[in-house]
Amino acid sequence: ELLSRFKTEATAAARCQNHNIVSIYDFGEHECAPYIVMEFVNGQSLESILKKHSTLTLERISTIFLSICDGLSYAHQQGIIHRDIKPSNIIVSDENSVKIADFGIAKIENSDATQLGLSLGTPSYMAPEQSAGKAIDCRVDIFAAGIIAFELLSLCDDIPHLLRQYAITVSLDAAKNKKIDSNTKFPQAIAAFLDHCLNPDANQRINNIADVIREFKSSIAPLLNENDTSVTTQHHTLPQESSSVISNNTEKKSLSDAGFDFDFHPDFLNMIKENNTPQESSQATEIKTIIAEEVQ
Question: What is the pTM of this model?
């Protein structure tokens, strides 16, 4: 019975021929041991990238996350639920493409290949219904993707300090997951997106990848340069220069000479300069005066 399940699910996973999914070329059995032959991707896991870097640019975060979403969208269209989405199963190749790996415990939607009461996956990325061994659907992959989005966005160096000052944390329900640092603050739109992905009630969670992509883009839109097309293309490719991974403080204009102990992204400086509000604080007015001198 187990071998039959393996063959059924391996056959289904092999249908997922997509540029954001590691291809399965063959599967079989050798000396009573089942095996799968997969595409070799020369690169590193997202888990390794998260451990190496303390900050990531919003462009890189967007490219990685949207590439994951593209791969999941294709798999879900084929009726395949991955069930084990996590950074160690996301490979960033040396050519800077992003691929989802390890469909070894993937499930065919609407099949009984996995019995109720059997919990498969990685606990810290599993949705509550998956942990409980209940019936699952594509929303378990959305929950896991939400955890990855939290991990990526918590390293974002492009969220201006002034926005963080008025930011909020994710909900207490989402913070129950041990991968979630309840002290991490995000702009309200990003926190709302994460909460929607991580809702413990599957019926209240985002229910398809298309909406995940739409809400993610909407949540980060205020932080992006309006001329930036990196998150609107169908095929997402990471920047070629490795220096884009880590923030470069030389690209930001310092306000330290004026007594401020933080820096702002230049796009955000221009946004403040160009958008006056009658209720602005005296500090904001002073910042704008400095900006006018620095950006002209």
Answer: 0.70
